[in-house]
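Q: For a teaching handout, I want to show students what a protein-ligand complex looks like in token form. Below are the inputs, and the small molecule is S-adenosylmethionine. Please produce the holo structure.
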Amino acid sequence: MYEPRFDWTREDVLALHARPLADLIYEAQGALRAHHDPNAVQRAQLLNIKTGGCAENCGYCSQSSAFETGLKASKLMELDAVLSAASAAKAGGAERFCMGAAWRDLRERDMEAVCAMISGVKAMGLETCVTLGMLHEGQAEKLAAAGLDYYNHNLDTGPEYYPQVVTTRSYQDRLDTLAQVRRAGVAVCSGGILGMGERAEDRADLLVQLAALSPHPESVPINHLVGIEGTPLGGSARLDGLDFVRWIAAARIIFPRSVVRIAAGRESMSQELQALCLLAGANSIFVGARLLTTANPGRDRDEALLDAVGAG
Ligand code: SAM
Ligand code: DTB
Ligand code: SF4
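A: Here is the structure, written as tokens, with S-adenosylmethionine included.
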């Protein structure tokens, strides 16, 4: 009971998602309670260490150079500025610090600077995570040696909808990067985005693909699209709130041992909807007033949320 399975099918996931809500939440709570403290919510904090000018064309992203989003590109941040942001995040209660770069892939010329950031953040007693795009052979090992705990690389959606989202890299490229991360002994953070115009079948397929990874990703971020003006997917219809809750519950049941994070999209969710996501088994959030380029609820709203559910 509540042990990871690697053979989920689209039909299994759709049937799970369609169960009566009370049954779904009850089972999700069972899965949560089997492996985690049910009243603890992990706090992770993001920092965009390199903004904009990205060569990929991910149709949801403010940072792609393929779209006019009004975002100003900037160079890789200096080490000191990164470490002071990490120290502020730690003082604000973050346990994990995740550094993101708007890169298609990690280039060797940036390796030394990124490794110094990882080592510096690790030395502060924070868990380290980076999301730097595709990795080449041997790079994950260098990041691991610098003290990297997690590498984030999302599958984003199911394989059938994927070509509607991005054409500059393939689904297999993403799976290859995740395999490199695993081989280097770095924990995997991988999830996706809901609300990009995909069908329920595509959301189910995303979970099936993530569930076929063995072992499962240690962290599974479930993002709701933050619609960005100027991007092809920016005008997509939002998911109904309870539908989003159902997908969170499905993720909790499918990934019983993983941390399931309500990632992007909380800024436009009510406190009650976020509390339902936590009841449905999510046990991590991004804290801080910003994600990478967009707004996040910030400290006061998040402390109120966590107090309200007794996870403060
Ligand atoms: N460039 C790297 C990459 O794509 O892997 C790292 C940064 S990228 C912004 C990290 C992830 O953030 C994406 O894979 C996507 O899942 C998520 N993301 C980006 N823009 C988003 C948006 N507007 N709404 C929701 N999630 C988003
Ligand atoms: C993840 O799954 N979501 C985060 C983190 N991993 C890198 C990023 C969310 C980005 C939201 C849009 C923005 O702020 O640009
Ligand atoms: Fe670049 Fe990452 Fe944005 Fe895609 S999601 S355009 S790879 S920054």
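A: Two things your students might notice: DSSP finds eleven helices and nine strands in the chain. The two ends are 29 Å apart (CA to CA).
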